[in-house]
Design goal:
GO terms for molecular function: GTPase activator activity. This is Rho GTPase activating protein 8. InterPro entries: CRAL-TRIO_dom, CRAL-TRIO_dom_sf, Rho_GTPase_activation_prot, RhoGAP_dom. By secondary structure, this protein is α/β, with parallel strands linked by helices. It is built from 20 helices and eleven strands. The protein has three domains: 70 residues, no CATH class; 158 residues, Phosphatidylinositol Transfer Protein Sec14p (3-Layer(aba) Sandwich), CATH 3.40.525; 185 residues, Rho GTPase activation protein (Phosphatidylinositol 3-kinase, Chain A, Orthogonal Bundle). The protein is 39% helix and 13% strand. A hairpin with a 4-residue loop joins strand 4 and strand 5. Helix 10 runs antiparallel to helix 13, helix 13 packs across helix 18 and helix 18 packs across helix 19. The N and C termini lie far apart (77 Å).
């Protein structure tokens, strides 16, 4: 058997091949250090075929026993592609500077590498969770079982709401690659609660190798789950689906994307041409400042989108379980946004889905050019962890009282409403803590860059304190134009 790097050894147990239909054949790929499961039988023939390689086993006269055979696959080319597209072996540095992680964190040994990050929400209010392969250290420096536990620990905070996974494949190499056995165990451990609310899985910069591995795992993966996968060849494609500016992208991935585009174009990557900004419509509601909305809406202090969504949700949604955690149909959200921006009426009663106004409210906040609580408070919120617990409400009050009057009024209106939602938490399951996980990143974000996983903790604590202690935090300041929900 020459050139073992090209050969996979297959061991087929034909005891399983009885009757018609799909059957099980298991084979061990020693040269890939992996175990695959393959389904397909038709007319006594087992066939697995791809466009770049294929293999056929004729077993019409075999009913039991074992057979060993060798299959020549383009593994050398795949491995070269996989290894050649990655950085050289060695310790991985954190992708960007992030707030220092508390050494008492239960998964400090894994979290310190920055492998997993939470990057706010997408355009439709779904939480974004990022897994960066380039941040994986060499396997001997990381317990992959702990990595799996940490991934579940992170997801457990968000799986009750709709969420998105973004997987950056670049940087995965032989020295840091988890085994396929680990992948299989991971998939089996992620039960329905993890898979149900996963709305999309984006695999960025996929290689042919990962496409083949995905095909080999297909029999183990439900058809419904498989439809959630999207391959993304270039980062620019993510802009169609996600809030790209908030996405946590390691510098190594950015450089690799530039190199790919340069190769694709046969020269250096072209400069991104941004079309000149169009002046907003007089009726524009999304993506414009609070001041603009006020000036164009007869000095209405509370933006119409907020007034209408809050009014409807107070009447119809306070007792809806998982309010603000669920997403709505993307196309419907786009249509409602368009109606608002054109100054046309929106009838939530006619739409009949309480989650639509909930998503619209979150989307409105997220698309403000400056966060409702302003850029200035971001650094102050990050310091909240260093404030003694008994003094944090007082510190929150100081931060909020420093807001411009218009921002203060709108924030008070929103937080009073969220407090009302939390009062029904026995039924709707939306406690101040759960609401904070949803709204924190929609109230505060940095002027530049994205929010790292470690930066989320003080943001969520801040939002939770505002919701739970709204009357204390906002109570001492009563502007003349104040409006209550």
């Amino acid at each position: 058997m020459s050139n073992l790097s090209h050969v996979i050894i297959l061991r087929l147990n034909f005891d399983f091949f009885k009757g018609e239909g799909s059957s099980l054949a298991s084979y061990q790929a020693d040269e890939c250090h992996a175990h695959f499961t393959l389904y397909y039988r038709h007319n006594g023939e087992v066939i697995f075929q791809r466009s770049d390689w294929s293999v056929t086993f004729l077993i019409s006269n075999i009913t039991s026993g074992y057979i060993f055979t060798q299959v020549v696959l383009p593994l050398t080319e795949l491995q070269k592609e996989e290894e050649g597209s990655c950085v050289t072996d060695g310790p991985s540095a954190p992708p960007v500077s992030t707030p220092s992680l508390d050494p008492s964190h239960p998964y400090y040994d894994v979290a310190r590498h920055g492998i997993i990050q939470v990057s706010g929400d997408d355009h439709y209010g779904r939480k974004l969770i990022v897994f960066s392969s380039c941040c994986l250290p060499p396997s001997h420096q990381l317990n992959h079982r702990r990595l799996l536990e940490y991934l579940k620990f992170t997801l457990d905070q968000y799986v009750e709401m709709d969420y998105i996974l973004v997987y950056f494949h670049y940087g995965l190499r032989s020295s840091n690659k988890p085994s396929l056995k680990w992948l299989r165990e991971a998939y089996s451990e992620f039960d329905r609660k993890y898979k149900k609310n996963l709305k999309a899985l984006y695999v960025v910069h996929p290689t042919n190798f990962i496409r083949i591995v995905w095909n080999l795992f297909k029999p183990l993966i439900s058809h419904k789950f498989g439809r959630k996968l999207t391959y993304v060849n270039y980062l620019a494609e993510l802009r169609e689906h996600l809030n790209y500016e908030q996405l946590f992208i390691p510098p190594e991935v950015l450089r690799h994307d530039e190199e790919l585009r340069a190769t694709q174009k046969g020269g250096p990557p072209p400069s991104v041409k941004t079309p000149p900004p169009r002046p907003p419509l007089p009726t524009q509601q999304f993506g414009v400042s609070l001041q603009y909305i006020r000036e164009k809406n007869r000095e209405a202090v509370i933006p119409p989108v907020m007034t209408q969504t809050v009014t409807y949700l107070k009447e119809k949604g306070l007792r809806t379980e998982g309010l603000f955690r669920r997403s709505a149909r993307v196309q419907l959200i786009k249509e409602v946004q368009k109606l608002y921006n054109l100054g046309k009426p929106v009838n939530f009663e006619q739409i009949g889905d309480v989650h639509v106004p909930a998503v619209i409210l979150k989307t409105f906040l997220r698309e403000l050019p400056e966060p409702l609580l302003t850029f200035r408070v971001y650094s102050q919120v990050q310091e909240l962890l260093h404030v003694e617990s008994s003094l944090r409400v007082t510190r929150c009050k100081q931060i909020v009282e420093s807001l411009p009057e218009h921002n203060f009024i709108v924030a008070k209106y929103l937080l009073c409403f969220l407090h009302q939602v939390s009062q029904e938490s026995i039924i709707n399951k939306m406690s101040p803590s759960n609401l904070a996980c949803v709204f924190g990143v929609n109230l505060v974000w940095p002027r530049h860059g994205s929010i790292s996983l470690t930066a989320l903790t003080p943001i969520n604590i801040f939002a939770e304190l505002l919701i739970e202690h709204v009357h204390t935090v906002f109570g001492s300041r009563c502007p003349p134009a104040q409006v209550m929900p």
